[in-house]
């Protein structure tokens, strides 16, 4: 009996880095499920690549639930790779920008990760797309100790992300030690999430690998035309996360090498 090729799920994949990740996974021999919020654009991208499409809005609990139900029905064999790529980078800085950015870039990742965890096969890979822009030294000295990766729990991390939004809304985020960047703060949370998940899944017999990756500043609709890297290089940096040894304590990488944050 011929073994099935590994099955990969990619979020936010109708264009840019997500689309290129699907292309590179396909060319590696994976079966690929391309997901996108916009059905028409997602279906068009999936047709062009010759991969499967499922609608997914990572900010919508019901959408995530529908995806999981479809995966259980269509792919009972389970997932081998999940690339949490969906994200936003909005202009300006105010409470609404902070709320939308954190909800998509941090809670969107958390929603999809928690939803697909039961579907992951032994040795599966969870690759979370983060950014080197999200540096912990952006945080004030009163906040940094609260991001202690040896003790932090997911519920506490999520509370910190909500507190950032609340502090921006009240106009006191600088006094509380937060930077004036919604994108950077959301990515601090996303990178921390990969470390906390790794610690919390340490006892899981499936030996699931969780890693956060930085694709670099890429020339995409989100990154803009002045990015330092092309889409293929950025996607390759994301997929280099599949090669990170599970025993490696550091869980944030760029181009397959540990990255500072």
TrEMBL record:
<keyword id="KW-0560">Oxidoreductase</keyword>
<keyword id="KW-0521">NADP</keyword>
<dbReference type="InterPro" id="IPR002347">
    <property type="entry name" value="SDR_fam"/>
</dbReference>
<dbReference type="Pfam" id="PF00106">
    <property type="entry name" value="adh_short"/>
</dbReference>
<dbReference type="InterPro" id="IPR036291">
    <property type="entry name" value="NAD(P)-bd_dom_sf"/>
</dbReference>
<protein>
    <submittedName>
        <fullName>SDR family NAD(P)-dependent oxidoreductase</fullName>
    </submittedName>
</protein>
<comment type="similarity">
    <text>Belongs to the short-chain dehydrogenases/reductases (SDR) family.</text>
</comment>
């Amino acid at each position: 009996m011929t073994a099935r090729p590994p099955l990969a799920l990619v979020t936010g994949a109708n264009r840019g880095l997500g689309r290129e990740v699907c292309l590179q996974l396909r060319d590696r021999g994976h079966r690929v499920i391309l997901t996108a919020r916009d059905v028409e654009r997602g279906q068009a991208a999936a047709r062009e690549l010759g991969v499967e499409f499922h609608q997914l809005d990572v900010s919508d609990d019901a959408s995530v639930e529908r995806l999981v139900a479809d995966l259980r029905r269509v792919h009972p064999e389970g997932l081998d790779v999940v690339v949490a790529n969906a994200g936003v980078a909005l202009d300006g800085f105010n409470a609404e920008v902070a709320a939308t950015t954190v909800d998509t870039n941090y809670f969107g990742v958390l929603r999809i990760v928690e939803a697909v965890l039961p579907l992951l096969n032994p040795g599966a890979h969870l690759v979370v797309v983060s950014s080197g822009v999200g540096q912990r030294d952006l945080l004030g000295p009163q906040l940094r100790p609260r991001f202690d990766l040896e003790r932090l729990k997911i519920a506490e991390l999520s509370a910190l992300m909500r507190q950032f939004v609340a502090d921006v809304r009240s106009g006191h985020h600088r006094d509380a030690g937060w930077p004036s960047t919604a994108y950077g703060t959301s990515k601090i949370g996303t990178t921390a999430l990969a470390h906390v998940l790794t610690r919390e899944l340490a006892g899981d017999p499936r030996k699931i690998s969780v890693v956060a990756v930085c694709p670099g500043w890429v020339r995409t609709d989100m990154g803009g035309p002045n990015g330092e890297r092309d889409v293929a290089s950025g996607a390759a940096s994301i997929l280099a996360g599949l090669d990170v040894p599970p025993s490696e304590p550091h869980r944030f990488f760029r181009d397959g090498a540990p990255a500072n944050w």
